[in-house]
Each structure stands twice: as C-alpha cells, then as structure tokens.
Specification:
This protein is α+β, with helices and mostly antiparallel strands. It has 2 domains: about 45 residues, no CATH class; about 40 residues. It has a two-stranded antiparallel ribbon. Strands 3-4 form a two-stranded antiparallel ribbon. The longest helix has 10 residues. The radius of gyration is 14 Å and the shape is globular. The two termini are about 25 Å apart.
C-alpha cells in the first residue's frame, strides 16, 4: 500500500486519504465481498468496490457487479465525494 501511495503522489494529503490493505481477505469475507479465484491460482480476493467514508460513517458504497456496470470507478466516487463535501 505504501508503494501505491507513493506512486500516486499523495504524500501531501496523508490526513485526507487512508490506504488500507486486506492481505488475508478477512475484511472481504466479513463484508461478503470475497471471491475465490483459486482455480486461476489467485486465491481469495475481494470483489472490486469503492467506498466513501466521512468521519467513520459510510456515505457511499459502490460494488462493481460487471465490467459494463463499473460504478466503483474513480469518477463515480469523486462525484459522490463532491456531493458530500
């Protein structure tokens, strides 16, 4: 996660952006978002989603059901963030 943060050049906004990892898929499983990709040698993974939380409260949750319905994209989440600003 640290390498991703550095690649995105968000070092100047550490208080506004929190990067979280789920290496054991425990959170994904607890939220019902786990996806078993063992048949492709990828193991347990999380379904793709975006989440907007403000002061610990989830304001928006976007689950990508299919590539054609990519509501978890950055543009959607940015619009939601601006609406909650």
């Amino acid at each position: 996660m640290d390498a991703w943060r550095q690649a995105l050049h968000t070092d100047d906004a550490p208080a506004r952006i929190t990067y979280l990892a789920d290496p054991t898929a425990a959170v994904s499983q607890a939220w019902g978002l786990d996806w078993d990709l063992a048949q492709f040698s990828a193991g347990q993974r999380s379904k793709r989603f975006s989440l907007l939380a403000v002061d610990g409260e989830v304001k928006a949750f976007n689950l990508m059901e299919t590539p054609e319905n990519a509501t978890s994209d950055a543009a959607t989440l940015l619009a939601q963030a601006q609406a909650h600003a």
